[in-house]
């Protein structure tokens, strides 16, 4: 009597492939630096064929963006008021950028996007927009103010990584909060808080 159990697809099981490739991506970027962390090296670290990676992510930039989305996860928009929400968001971004490989990957893909309009579009729509929209909704702020907040905070944190190779220390993150908070606590278009 023929078996009614469906045949398993050939090859290696795909459950957990994203997690494996993302871990290998961050590990490779941390160990070798962004430029030397090629898709071939990431695939080797993950123990998969380069073609397996390229089937899911047509470019290194797209792989890095999805890896960063996974590393950052959803924005933990916490706090009982605007100040607490802004403070927790700044700390969350700083903490994520300081995780092994994450800041290096973020700075590298950001740098590549400067001269790659396609990658810039991917960064904008897939990485930045979900967080921008969540912040706009939580804060009740227009797009241009939330984009400025993201530019200032992420820009400062990535600049520090680029200049020192290290994430910003806690005391400097607190100074960043003190500098940024007064501007963003002001009401829209100069209204009182």
Can you walk me through this structure?
This protein is an all-alpha fold and 193 residues long. It is 69% helix and 0% strand. The chain has 9 helices and no strands. The protein has helices spanning 17-32, 39-46, 50-56, 60-72, 82-97, 102-113, 117-139, 143-164, 170-185. The longest helix is centred in the middle third of the chain and has 23 residues, at 117-139. The chain is globular, with a radius of gyration of 20 Å. The N and C termini lie far apart (76 Å). The relative contact order is 0.11. Residues 5-13 and 188-193 have low confidence and may be disordered.
The count of β-strands is 0
Task: Enumerate how many helices there are, as a single number.
Answer: 9
Query: Looking at the chains present, what oligomeric state does this protein adopt?
Result: single chain
Give the overall shape: globular
Described by strand count, sense and barrel closure, the largest sheet is:
none
Nearest-integer average pLDDT: 89
How much is the radius of gyration in Å? 20 Å
Please trace the helix and strand order, writing H or E for each element: HHHHHHHHH
Estimate percent helicity.
55-70%
Helix/strand class: mainly alpha
Spans where pLDDT lies below 50 across 5 or more residues: 5-13, 188-193
Q: Bin the strand percentage.
A: under 5%
Q: What is the distance, rounded to the nearest whole angstrom, between the alpha carbons of the first and last residues?
A: 76 Å
């Amino acid at each position: 009597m023929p078996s009614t159990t469906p045949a398993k697809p050939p090859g290696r099981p795909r459950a957990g492939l994203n997690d494996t490739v993302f871990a290998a991506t961050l590990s490779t970027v941390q160990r070798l630096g962004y430029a030397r962390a090629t898709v071939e090296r990431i695939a080797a670290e993950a123990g998969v064929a380069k073609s397996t990676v390229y089937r899911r992510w047509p470019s290194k930039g797209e792989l890095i963006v999805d890896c960063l989305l996974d590393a950052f996860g959803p924005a933990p928009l916490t706090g009982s008021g605007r100040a607490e929400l802004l403070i927790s968001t700044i700390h969350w971004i700083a903490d994520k950028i300081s995780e092994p490989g994450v800041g290096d990957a973020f700075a590298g893909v950001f740098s590549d996007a400067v001269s790659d309009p396609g990658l810039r579009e991917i960064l904008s729509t897939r990485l930045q927009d979900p967080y921008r929209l969540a912040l706009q909704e939580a804060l009740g702020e227009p797009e241009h103010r939330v984009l400025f907040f993201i530019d200032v905070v992420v820009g400062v944190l990535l600049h520090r990584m680029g200049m020192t190779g290290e994430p910003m220390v806690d005391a400097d993150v607190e100074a960043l909060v003190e500098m940024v908070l007064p501007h963003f606590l002001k009401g829209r278009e100069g209204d009182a808080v």
